[in-house]
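FAQ

Q: What does a record look like?
A: Structure on top, sequence underneath. For example:
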């Protein structure tokens, strides 16, 4: 990696962009964020973006001529010295990797794609929230939070004091859920999840990046 700032292609409000920003903050890496690259706006899902990520997802990490898609892979690349990945033994290392996949695939789908996005970008008439859609997605979102609650009852990398890539992936999602209106914020029913979020929010990186969003 070079000493020049890396660029995180994508918007600051995206939970996955925030995960990469958290990793940069934790590692004190210089970075810039946004759709503007070298002074030019690079269109979301435009030709250039699709060259970087064939499915037009964000974030993409740009460093010189290198473009890396996929959040967990970006985080692992930035964590060159492995400080944000448990190294104790290969089993714990693999468990952390698996947790990163669970969070960025299944938990993200239940919490962010199928639930939270309806609040952030309502698709109802006159941009109103489709509460029928929200209500339908809520049981699966609550089930995902219950799974996190269970994970937090065991000794895992999520319960260790060390901040890891798994935390960087999970914290932005939980923070956004906690910002939802009463009755939709789900977390209040899960004391371990609530405590976990309170703990990560004591970190300067999380205080800086996980700023509240009005839904
Ligand atoms: N597997 C990708 C998923 C990234 C993702 O879903 N990003 C969202 C924004 S937070 C996105 O690009 N959504 C636009 C789309 O799916 O077309 C990763 O882990 O980076």
């Amino acid at each position: 990696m070079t000493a020049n700032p890396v660029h995180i292609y994508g918007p600051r409000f995206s939970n996955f962009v925030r995960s990469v920003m958290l990793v940069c903050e934790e590692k004190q890496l210089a970075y810039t964020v946004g759709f503007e690259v070298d002074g030019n706006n690079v269109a979301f899902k435009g030709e250039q973006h699709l060259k970087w990520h064939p499915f037009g997802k964000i974030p993409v990490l740009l460093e010189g001529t290198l473009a890396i898609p996929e959040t967990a892979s970006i985080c692992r690349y930035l964590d060159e010295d492995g400080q944000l990945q448990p190294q104790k033994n290969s089993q714990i290392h693999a468990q952390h990797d698996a947790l990163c996949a669970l969070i960025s695939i299944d938990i993200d789908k239940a919490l962010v794609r199928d639930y939270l996005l309806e609040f952030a970008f309502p698709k109802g008439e006159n941009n109103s929230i489709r509460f029928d859609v929200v209500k339908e997605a809520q049981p699966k979102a609550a089930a995902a939070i219950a799974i996190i609650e269970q994970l937090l009852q065991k000794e895992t990398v999520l319960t260790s004091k060390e901040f890891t890539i798994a935390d960087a992936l999970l914290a932005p999602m939980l923070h956004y859920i906690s910002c939802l209106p009463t009755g939709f914020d789900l977390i209040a029913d899960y004391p371990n999840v609530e405590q976990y979020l309170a703990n990560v929010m004591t970190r300067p990186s999380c205080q800086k990046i996980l700023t509240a969003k009005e839904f």
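Q: Is there anything notable about this one?
A: The pocket of glutathione is lined by residues 14-16, 56-58, 70-71, 104 (CB under 6 Å).
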